[in-house]
């Protein structure tokens, strides 16, 4: 492990982060509604501290041509921790909304990992600058701040591919252009364009430009932070809910396919087996929930039921975490279905978290192949996805990631159950808290349902859930590989 390379690149990430803090500072200067909050001094101090730390680390001499996969994993893992740590400074320094630095860090890493789990119960009293930064952390983390750094710093050259491979794990890292920096720019270009489209559409509703921007950041990045205490449900607008529902689906699909759409190739969506499965899961789940809510008889008209069902299914599958209703009050079997959807996630190459649909599809095909082998033991059966034979190493990787993901879920659930106080120590709360943070979903069931928050949890539980968010965002292996002693050898 070349530690100088790791430190220098983390320094560059912090410089990009410091530059991004100028935007919420400008918002704070425009609105000047801080009141008891010291948001402008908080942003100025945070920019200075982050810039100084970044400049110091970036000045460390290092040969980036020697960057390998191990350094890429280290930069990504420790870079995300550093970004979350420095990104928490404006929240912590601005006032008393966050009782401790740990609470500010929890909110920060929840934002950057696009989890959307919050410790706040009173959101609307926060000044505009803090609200904007809180939502902007989603937008930066959605496509990935490492990918952003590769895009704005083309001097990284071939080292950029190692960084993107570490931050955007999956079966493969698609190159839209021969140079990885050009690919990163195109992905961010599509991301920005979709962001602008949703902002305009939401601006036509009851939302002003500020609210439209913040909710767009939470939607396209599948994050879930809202500017309202009761999330999207506060607007009571069918138009807003349908716009956000559509863009949550867009955020849950592969951004390479979105690029194909802008190039006049919309057929790329339906050619993808993963996309077809993703849409099928959404439609079947929403239909089941619509039937359940109709039988329950408490959700209004048929349109209200269908709209609620599709919104809540997509907010969980896309791991966005917005809410229009308290699904924790639904019938037990619907709550169980929502819990299971927390493990699904969107497509590979999307901003969604959790296991991803392509892994579940491959696991299903592996299971079917093993059943067929019982009947035809001598037949050679190739496993295909999108009409192409899947490399055995990809299958092995899928099984490994899924196994580690579920192992992390079990271990973290046991730890949370052991830590939570007796009055709230139910398995439902413990398991859903881990599933919601490991899957980057946000709200769960029980004590951390859509109308609750994570403030009441003990510090040790918050630390474990912060680790779950990082594991979920980087898909487990990127983080766990650094625990091997061999990873640190020269």
Question: How does the SSE layout of this entry go?
Answer:
Layout: H1 3-20, H2 22-31, H3 39-58, H4 69-87, H5 89-93, H6 101-112, H7 128-143, H8 145-152, H9 159-167, H10 180-203, H11 209-220, H12 238-252, H13 255-262, H14 267-271, H15 273-296, H16 302-317, H17 332-341, H18 357-375, E1 384-385, E2 388-389, H19 392-419, H20 427-438, H21 459-473, H22 477-480
Antiparallel strand pairs: 1-2
Helix pairs in contact: 1-3, 1-4, 1-8, 2-3, 2-7, 4-6, 4-9, 6-7, 6-21, 7-11, 8-10, 10-11, 10-13, 11-12, 12-16, 15-16, 18-19, 19-20, 19-21, 20-21
* Order of strands in the sheet with most strands: 1-2
Q: In terms of per-residue confidence, which ranges show pLDDT below 50 for 5 or more consecutive residues? A: 169-173
Radius of gyration over alpha carbons? 22 Å
How much of the sequence lies in strands comes to under 5%
H/E series: HHHHHHHHHHHHHHHHHHEEHHHH
Count of individual helical segments = 22
Shape: globular
Distance from N terminus to C terminus (CA atoms, Å) equals 5 Å
Give a count of the beta strands, DSSP E runs of length 2 or more: 2
Identify the quaternary structure here: single chain
Instruction: State the share of residues found in helices, binned by percent.
Output: 55-70%
Largest sheet: 2 strands, antiparallel
Mean pLDDT across residues: 87
Structural class: mainly alpha
